[in-house]
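Example (one chain per record):
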Amino acid sequence: MKNDYTLDKYELFIDRIISVLTYSIFFLFAFACAYPFYYLFINTISANQLSDRGLINFFPTGIHFKNYMDAFKIPGLLQAAQVSLARTVIGTGCTVLFAAFIGFMCTREHLWKRKLWYRFIVITMYFNAGIIPWFLTMKNLGLTNNFWGYVLPTMVSPFFIILTKTYIESVPKELQEAAECEGAGILTVFFRIMLPVCKPILATIAIFAAVGQWNSFQDTLLLVTDNKLYTLQFVLYQYLNQASSLAEMVNSGSASAALIANMQTATSIRMTVTIIVVAPILFTYPIFQRFFVKGIMIGAVKG
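Predicted structure:
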């Protein structure tokens, strides 16, 4: 009896050690993920001269928010934000709608050559013609210097279609059959039955699509020469290379009202614009996070 008590006490001690180690590892991992964003933020609200010399590491010093007010004086930043917001909202909406509808149609047993069309979509995941053929195709379609060049190429994504199809196949077919018995057509079944049921997977797809649209800048680099269509990420890419000249430009317009400690530097411009670009997607992600795991996992296991 005494040996059993000693063994239980020993096992309890080991469990606590394992729990402490587990929580410590998770804490360190979370800290490693969060610290870069925290570091950027505290440097944008600290005295710019200290930030430029790398003296701000854990706590802000000389707190001010002038960097953010000055950042919006940079030419083209607000317009680029509007373009990025528009492509994210429109592109995400179109991607989710098309992924849902095509995935739904690929589950319809009466669709002509259903398996052929599905395999034709999936095979595009494994073969890529390359940038030059892609650019020539976009040019021939008139999608260079065109806002729809951001939206149309991303409307059909094989990966999202696979996710949607797998999810719909996990939904009882009796739902569709009951609606069809009442005289509902394909569009009615899709919009009134399947879309509400598929909210978790559609929210998951929306996260992926929105992050991809918001962070994309390569398509702007290759397709767009009109600065009215520049996205926020592309503007950030340019500003990171031109931060010194931008700092001089901003300071020349506000030097009379600024303290020397808060004069714009190349470092403050880079960090401030980076926070402005990253913040919207950081605040959007938690809204859909509760759907994320459920949307990915449901339908992954059969039987």
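Caption: Confidence is low (pLDDT under 50) at residues 254-261.
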